[in-house]
Amino acid sequence: MSQxxxxxxxxxxxxxxxxxxRFGGFVALDGVDLSVPKGQRLGLIGPNGSGKSTLVNCICGxxxxxxxxxxxxxxxxxxxxxxxxxxxxxxRSFQLPRPFRSMTVAQNIRVPLLYTVNARAGTHLSHSExxxxxxxxxxxxxLDAKAGKYTTDxxxxxxxxxxxxxxxxxxxxxxxxxxxxxxxxxSEVEDIVALLIRMNERGVTIxxxxxxxxxxMTFSQRLVVLVSGKKIADGRPEDVIQDKEVVGAYLGQ
Amino acid sequence: MRTPAFILILTAVAAALYFAFNLVxxxxxxxxxxxxxxxxxxxxxxxxxxxxxGYVNFGSxxxxxxxxxxxxxxxxxxxxxxxxxxEFLVAPMQAIFPIPVPVLIVIAGIVAGFxxxxxxxxxxxxxxxxxxxxxxxxxxxxxxxxxxxxxxxxSRGAYVIPPNEVPIFGHFIQFLFALMLILxxxxxxTSRLIERxxxxxxxxxxxxxxxxxxxxxxPTLRLKLVATVVSGxxxxxxxAPFPYYIGYVEPGSAFSLSYAVNSxxxxxxxxxxxxxxxxxxxxxxxxxxxxxxxxxxSAANLLIVGLLLIFFVIIAPRGIVGxxxxxxxxxxxx
Lengths: 253, 334
Fold this sequence. Notes:
The complex is a heterodimer.
Chain A lengths: L1 H8 L4 E10 L2 E11 L4 E5 L6 H9 L6 E6 L2 E2 L5 H7 L1 E4 L11 H13 L9 H14 L15 H14 L4 E5 L7 H16 L3 E5 L3 H7 L2 E6 L2 E6 L1 H4 L3 H8 L2
Parallel strand pairs in A: 3-8, 3-9, 6-7, 7-8
Antiparallel strand pairs in A: 1-2, 1-4, 4-5, 9-10
Chain B lengths: L2 H22 L2 H26 L7 H20 L1 H4 L2 H10 L4 H23 L4 H20 L10 E2 L5 E2 L3 E2 H25 L1 H11 L1 H6 L4 H20 L2 H5 L1 E2 L1 H4 L2 H14 L5 H20 L4 H16 L3 H15 L1
Antiparallel strand pairs in B: 1-4, 2-3
């Protein structure tokens, strides 16, 4: 009885059950199970080609999974297209930044505000509220000085920050940051990790996909390792990185 | 500027143009002007899908011809009321037919809008050059259909005899010219409204990056369907008065490649990101073609379009409007 109550109390925000995806003969995801409770900072690592990005794409609706199911916030979201999942509170950033190039930085942030936040029942932001919200988000990622600039004038790290701010603008419950730090310098990486932790403190659950171990260890409360489309480890970061199978997968047997 | 003020100014300009042409008193001006206005509508309509959303439509001629043949169809029905309708319906039908041109324009808009919706459903999972090819194919399918439909003339073509005089306007061509002016106002206002609305923002995200648009919550497929419907409907409306203008249509002229080429080239030359671009491009290119038709030969038209297009792609890839914007921005920076 108490088991049931505690289960409903901590019903996971995201629940993935036996997720499978193939590309022709190549098995990208081979029955992945994953449950993410509300508020968690989860790190997801794995060698190149292990299926991390495919997993993100299946969760976010960019790709459709073939087997298994994804439950988000108590609702099955299989078959929903990407923008519907965004409306439900699932946001992502892209590995290679994909800004809207014909727009300024502030206009980029406005898009999810107009199309996701204002599309939800009960919210309608006026023009001045939209402007305020844009500036607030840009302050959060320290891009407020660049609000009027076009995205072609941004540096790599600024582009990554814009990517995260645009994802945050959709007021997500879950944010998936897909390699937001690849190719950045030491201090820039710290900058982004601090930013992600600030976002998490605002109550957003975050899944971070990353290769930079320093960042992963600082950020993650829990670490999941994916190899060849299978989950091989899941637990406290300190324990996971000492796991024999994980070490083997990274260094070769 | 607010939309009512914008419409008021456009109407004033249109009225001034009409009265100026009337003052000159030469019907040729109306004939030439009609063609330029028709291109303004076509270019503006094309730009809603091609410029705002970035989907290059090579099927403008198809949508234009839908408008043309809507008129031909109803004209043909009006010519043979006694054969088509049962006896008790002949008298009421004779009162309805011939259907006035403004009503035909509305009907053509609805028909072409539906075809646009169908085209959207069939092709919008295609992108870039594949979408362009599919729209070109749609035109070929429509043309084949018309060629084999003898009721609207088939490949023989059909005569549509305009009445000589219309009350208030005088010559029928002046009436058609005035109608086209109204269509231009409708097209430009629609285009400007879209550009400044949430819809316009959504269209721009589709043009920039569809994956990122979806991730930001933009329902890209639905917006693309809106674009194909609006764009197609406006093109159909531009085609509806054409049979009355020209007097005789056959598939070759209604589906002419020059409509497809011009409605792409004009926004490209003028600039595709705002409603001003297609207007500037159509005024420039349309007028130039009219002048060339008189002074050189109508065969020179496509050559002119081609040369100008090459020139602009090299010198000003963002069109005349883009060129001016860059100048202005550059000056304000320094």
